[in-house]
Known about the structure:
Layout: H1 3-9, E1 11-14, H2 18-29, E2 37-40, H3 46-49, E3 54-55, E4 65-68, H4 75-78, E5 91-94, H5 101-108, E6 114-118, E7 128-134, H6 140-150, E8 154-158, H7 165-173, H8 175-192, H9 197-217, H10 222-228, H11 235-243, H12 250-270
Parallel strand pairs: 1-2, 1-4, 2-3, 4-5, 5-6, 7-8
Antiparallel strand pairs: 6-7
Amino acid sequence: MKQSELAARGLVLLGCGKMGSAMLAGWLDGGLPAGSVWVQDPYPSDWLGTTGVHINQPLPENPALVLIAVKPQMMTEALPVLKGYGGGQTLFVSVAAGTSIVSYETILGASSPIVRAMPNTPAAIGQGITALVGNAACTPSHLDQADQLLQAIGQVVRLEREDQMDAVTGVSGSGPAYVFHLIETLAAAGVAQGLPAALALQLAKATVAGAGALAEAAEETPAQLRVNVTSPNGTTQAALEVLMNETDGFPALVTRAVAAATERSKELSRG
């Protein structure tokens, strides 16, 4: 599906909160005409009203793509509106957490191409990472189109199986919250050692952001980057002896945390 077809047939965005708004901004910046976008949202933002897209207006008859970005609890009410688009002509892409492909197929039909995707909150600044997987009706072209659209909010990876989505949720979907908590606790630890709160927070945020950017940019692995800054018997080694303790350090704690999030994701998808 080419950009020209998307512009000609139209794109429907069901739900335009923070994630939907981030994607829409990326698409419009990438050249998608505002007049080719229809947004359905019960509480449209002031920003949305400035974009020129169709807001809560009658939808096109045969849109090229429908992107579902409503909260999971609104899914039961929202999906039946789209039932008439099922059957293969329209590509459906869902970024709603915890809703399985089979749930969509029950309403839209198994012949409808459906892509399930899991972005994360740094998508709001174009720094997210999204994992996607398609159903049996998806062609390579469908996956390429979904991939291209989701690149508006950051990196995109493709999964081999839908059941991998629970682990993705545990690592990257919920992962930003782990990093935010690391910033909180690192700053609090600085305060405990005598730093002013504002300075400790500035140091913690910049350190985490800079280390993450370096890990992305460097050719070395994170393990090697860690070794690079660890002098024998130095300050970093003293800290790492605590953090890397196999009993109560990062390895055990993060493994348990990701496992807990993954298991909860499985429970939610089972309903």
